[in-house]
């Protein structure tokens, strides 16, 4: 397997304010992700999966270990790793189009005309062309997340990091955006790490699901979802429900066991 | 039709709100007039609103009040802008770089609690009774408050905005100019408006203690002759100037930040 992203022996410890007690968040942890792969991070809440993703994004620094992207050692955030947050990160002082165009603002690889073209392209892809001139406080939460996704894609990152991007949305909007993301993924083939605690969301979207233990995070199990349910079946809503539910129960059982461990430990 | 007036948090039409606002003023004036003309309080202490209105006109026609106003407004704006020019960049830095905040915060918190009137004698010793000491009083009264307000506004910019900037490839300077400042600006302008109001309080203190011009000086010298209507007219003039400035700020705010309208 091609090792596009390579996480090697990464650890992370948080210290309490007085510096006396430490909380290990991530144990020595190694992981590889192939180019174009959609990887879902699952695990009990507070297990350190978001921390790991933020370390990969350069927004937090690991204590030890290394992360490489296409062979380059990574340190600090840059345009190669785009991030979509759970909270709405679109800018209220810009309209929808200018928000998306902001993604191209710091690109030096394309001309001004191309920036306009790319902006319109992604605005259309997330279905917001009709809302081009709307300020973001006039549009719904789901639309704001679409703005954030389009803005990130317009910046042309090598990998897309999504931190529970649909977590704050209602069920219908969430499902709509999940299918939209699958459509985008079909054309974009963007390497994506997606953190969620929603098992069904993970199975629906994943090429591979990585299940983490309770804190400190280590990989408990990796599941190649494509081997169980082909991606086109999921995309067309024709997934074998028997397989879908048995996979869901299998994953839930692992997470429950991990969760029980934390409860007993405290 | 009257029902909305009695429902908790029920919205009112803009026109009704304006009418109610004017009504509030009239209510105040009526009570004042009735009290003053009842004879319970001597007119040297409480003249009628009409006497004050006449005094207001006399101030302009007989005492060249307009040039006092110009002098006072000039002092307020000079000191205010001097505060803004220094406080805004420092406040931004305090919240973006923890080290700057850690150095400045305890000191500013200390200075902030020094009552400005208590500093007036010291400032007069340092700067004499000229313009400098008055500007210094106003500056002391606003700068240390404003810098903390600006720092707070900056702190309230969501971390996700800044992190988005980093992952979109913006440099620190670009994040400051393109994200932090636009995000904090509406609250900053609001705080400038509030701080400008405080400037007027300190102006009158400064002008009463040591000045030979300005609204405060005018009010204080008329007091000596117990010209109560003129004194009250002077105070009302400050209120009117304050109200006009405030409305101008609000109007500019609504125009500049129309995107906040729902």
Plain-language structure description:
The complex is a heterodimer of chains A (266) and B (262). Chain A has two domains: 159 residues, P-loop containing nucleotide triphosphate hydrolases (Rossmann fold); 69 residues, no CATH class. Helix content of chain A is 38%, strand content 23%. In chain A, the strands form two sheets. Chain A has a six-stranded mixed β-sheet, with helices on both faces. A four-stranded antiparallel β-sheet of chain A has the order 2-1-4-5, with helices on one face. In chain A, helix 3 packs antiparallel against helix 4. By secondary structure, chain B is an all-alpha fold. Chain B has one domain: Orthogonal Bundle (MetI-like fold), CATH 1.10.3720.10. In chain B, 79% of the residues lie in helices and 0% in strands. In chain B, helix 3 runs antiparallel to helix 4, helix 3 runs parallel beside helix 6 and helix 5 packs across helix 6. Chain B is flat. Chains A and B meet through strand 6 and helix 4 of A and helix 7 and helix 8 of B.
Salient structural properties:
heterodimer; A: 266 residues; alpha/beta; Rossmann fold; 2 domains; 6-stranded mixed sheet; 4-stranded antiparallel sheet; 9 helices; 23% strand; B: 262 residues; mainly alpha; MetI-like fold; flat
**Share of residues in helices of chain B:** over 70%
Instruction: Summarize the helix and strand pattern of chain B as letters.
Output: HHHHHHHHHH
Number of strands of chain A: 10
Instruction: Assign the CATH class of the largest domain in chain A.
Output: Alpha Beta
How many domains make up the 3D coordinates of chain A? 2
- Percentage of residues in strands of chain B: under 5%
Oligomer: heterodimer
């Amino acid at each position: 397997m091609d090792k596009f992203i390579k996480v090697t022996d990464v650890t992370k410890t948080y210290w309490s304010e007085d510096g006396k007690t430490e909380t290990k968040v991530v144990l020595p942890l190694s992981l590889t992700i192939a180019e174009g792969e959609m990887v879902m991070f699952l695990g009990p809440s507070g297990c350190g999966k978001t921390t790991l993703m933020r370390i990969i994004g350069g927004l937090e620094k690991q204590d030890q270990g290394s992360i490489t992207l296409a062979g380059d050692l990574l340190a600090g955030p840059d345009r190669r790793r785009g991030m979509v947050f759970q909270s709405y990160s679109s800018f209220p002082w810009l309209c929808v189009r200018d928000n998306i165009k902001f993604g191209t603002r710091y690109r030096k690889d394309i001309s001004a005309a191309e920036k306009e073209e790319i902006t319109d392209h992604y605005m259309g892809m997330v279905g917001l062309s009709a809302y081009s001139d709307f300020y973001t406080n006039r549009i719904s939460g789901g639309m704001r997340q679409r703005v954030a996704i389009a803005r990130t894609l317009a910046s042309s990152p090598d990998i897309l990091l999504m931190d529970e991007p649909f977590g704050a949305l209602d069920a219908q909007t969430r499902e709509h955006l999940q299918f939209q993301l699958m459509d985008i993924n079909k054309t974009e083939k963007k390497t994506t790490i997606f953190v969620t605690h929603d098992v069904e969301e993970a199975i629906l979207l994943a090429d591979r699901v990585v299940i983490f233990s309770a804190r400190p995070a280590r990989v408990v199990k990796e599941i190649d979802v494509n081997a169980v349910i082909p991606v086109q079946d999921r995309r067309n809503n024709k997934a074998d429900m028997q397989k879908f539910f048995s996979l869901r129960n299998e994953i839930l059982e692992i997470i429950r066991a991990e969760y029980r461990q934390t409860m007993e430990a405290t | 039709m009257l029902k909305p007036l009695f429902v908790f948090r029920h919205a009112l039409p803009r026109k009704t709100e304006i009418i109610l606002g004017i009504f509030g003023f009239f209510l105040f004036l009526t009570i004042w007039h009735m009290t003053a003309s009842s004879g319970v309080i001597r007119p040297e202490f409480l003249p009628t609103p009409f006497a004050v209105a006449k005094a207001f006109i006399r101030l302009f026609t007989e005492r060249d009040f307009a040039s006092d106003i110009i002098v006072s407004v000039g002092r307020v704006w000079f000191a205010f802008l001097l505060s803004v020019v220094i406080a805004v960049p420092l406040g931004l830095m305090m919240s973006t770089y923890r080290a700057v905040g850690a150095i400045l915060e305890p000191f500013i918190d200390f200075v902030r609690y020094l009552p400005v009137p208590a500093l007036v004698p010291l400032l007069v010793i340092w700067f004499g009774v000229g313009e400098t000491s008055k500007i210094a009083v106003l500056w002391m009264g606003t700068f240390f408050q404003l810098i903390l307000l600006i720092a707070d506004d900056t702190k309230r910019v969501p971390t996700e905005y800044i992190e988005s900037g980093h992952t979109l490839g913006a440099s620190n300077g670009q994040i400051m100019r393109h994200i932090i400042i636009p995000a904090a600006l509406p609250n900053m302008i609001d705080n400038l408006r509030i701080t400008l109001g405080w400037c007027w309080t300190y102006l009158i203190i400064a002008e009463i203690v040591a000045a030979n011009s300005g609204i405060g000086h005018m009010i204080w010298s008329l007091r000596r002759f117990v010209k109560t209507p003129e004194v009250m007219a002077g105070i009302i003039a400050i209120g009117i100037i304050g109200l006009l400035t405030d409305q101008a700020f609000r109007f500019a705010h609504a125009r500049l930040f129309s995107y906040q309208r729902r």
